[in-house]
Specification:
Blueprint: E1 7-8, E2 15-21, E3 24-30, E4 34-39, E5 45-51, E6 54-55, E7 92-97, E8 121-126, E9 132-138, E10 147-156, E11 161-170, E12 176-187, E13 197-202, E14 211-215, E15 223-225, E16 228-231, E17 238-242, E18 245-253, E19 256-261, H1 271-274, E20 277-282, E21 301-307, E22 311-313, E23 318-328, E24 336-337, E25 341-343, E26 348-350, E27 353-360, E28 364-371, E29 377-386, E30 392-397, E31 406-411, E32 414-420
Antiparallel strand pairs: 1-2, 2-3, 3-4, 4-5, 5-6, 7-12, 8-9, 9-10, 10-11, 11-23, 12-21, 12-22, 13-16, 13-18, 14-17, 15-16, 17-20, 18-19, 19-23, 20-21, 24-25, 25-27, 26-27, 27-30, 28-29, 28-31, 31-32
Length: 424
Amino acid sequence: MSSTPAHRDPQGRIIAVRRARAGHEIVEVDNGLVRLVIAPALGGRLLSAVRDGREFLHRNPDLLDDALNARDPRAVGPHDGPMSAWHNWGGDKTWPAPQGWSGPEEWAGPPDPVLDSGAYTCDVDVADDGSCAEITLTSADDPRTGLRLTRRITLATGRSDFALRLGARNVSARHVRWALWNVTQLPGHPAERPGDGVWLGTAGSGPPDTVDLVAGTGRPRVEHHGDVLHVPAQDVVGKVGFPDAAGWIAHVGPAGTWTYRFPVDPAAPYTDDGSRAEVWMEHPLEVPLEHLGGLRPRHRVVECEALGPYRELAPGDTTTLDGTMSLGPRLGALSSVGAHAWWGEPLTYAAGKVTGVCVPSGTGPAALLVRDTTGRVLRRQDVGECGAGTPLALDTRLPAEPGAARVEVRCGRDVLGAVAVLPG
């Protein structure tokens, strides 16, 4: 890879460029399908994620104009104080958990002068053949938590998703115990359309589905749809946690469908009563919420939050949390999010027919594979082409095969989903 601030291959597939803005610098990365904008000086935030001209992330219009200039450049930089003093720029960022103000084992932010509002260094690497770009953001050393945070964003050509690897290193001389916590702010809206809001899968592992975490004006309403939970669009200020989250969360809104897939460790402890994922919602209020540090929301915002487990870190130790985000069209409700596709209508095989609707993250030939219990392919049936971020609707006859155990949907080398073949 070449460490250059701007690069385009001969076919123009990946572009990465640094641009000056009032008060700070941004880094733009574009693969022709997805355009990302990172703001290193604003706490290492991913500030914009655009597909088909639609912005998926919330950013604060009181602090930033449409070109991402700081309306008041003096607001850029480290700041601290109560919640009412927070410069919430928006976008996607990483914090340490748990949050709290009762002792040094809790992160007393935001605001926070190092990890949330401090400047991050930014290294931009673009592959010599232009096939992918990596942006690595690194915080300063934080004396309060003992941590140095890193965020590595990887965008490849021909895909509507991108990878996000979070890291934390104990740079102090003491043992610390923290969890990585990724917070994505998305635009809320007042009117609910069917399917809008947050969706997440549950693992059925025994913990309660939800826990109440913060009640500003109330508790976000959660609806149960089998092993999938739905937090509809609603005007409330509050937070709910999900101890049984299965490792994916999604938001359906005006821009389309945003998804985030992340690993969970059922055997490890998690913060906030075991929450693996959390949802915060806010809407404009006329008066501050004094019991929340004077917080006064001025916009409709939905936060989709993914947490890693608690990790004990000796001096020099590190912990990481990998995730994958994707941007796609609005199809309504989600039934699942896999490694390479999300499903609106679930994949089914019944009466010799495969049905379902998914949105792949990659491009290539689509095929159905029938496998036996050993994984051997009994039949392959081509079903056209996959387009990255484009719905793939299946309504395909597939005759039963003796010894068939499962039907697999593939896009090129990517497995989009699989379903068991029931006997009889």
